[in-house]
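Protein record

Derive tokens from sequence
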Amino acid sequence: MRVYGVVGWKNAGKTGLMERLVTEITGRGFSVSTVKHAHHSFDVDHPGKDSFRHREAGASQVLLASRNRIALMHELRGAPEPSLEELLSQLAPVDLVLVEGYKRDAHPKIEAHRAVTGNPLISPDDPTIRAVASDTELLLDLPIFDLDDTAAIADFILAEVEL
């Protein structure tokens, strides 16, 4: 499975870039799935709904299905967080999986960077970062893209994964 990541500090533009890349790459006829890492507890369910009540009652997994979508929720209940590799193995085959976060994993990545955040670049200390998408001029020994040049970033990623 071809995997490419988007990393960066908070408010660097990762999610917007991911959204634009999915639109751009699927518009070119490729199938894309995404994985998003959250550093905090999150919920895709709502109190009072049947699936929420199933989880609260102690179910390890709750599969919610309709003719439009399927959602599988897995409660870890103290078990370790699954690795990115384990999560990827659960996805249906696609042309490309775009991963937001998981900056410490070994897959190739592009760093999203916005000057206004004041955060340093991650790329100088991370050889898995192959390029930077930024809203400011940078001097690096890596390809640098305008953060809003989605087509050029998509071209780069697709070339990197040989699609």
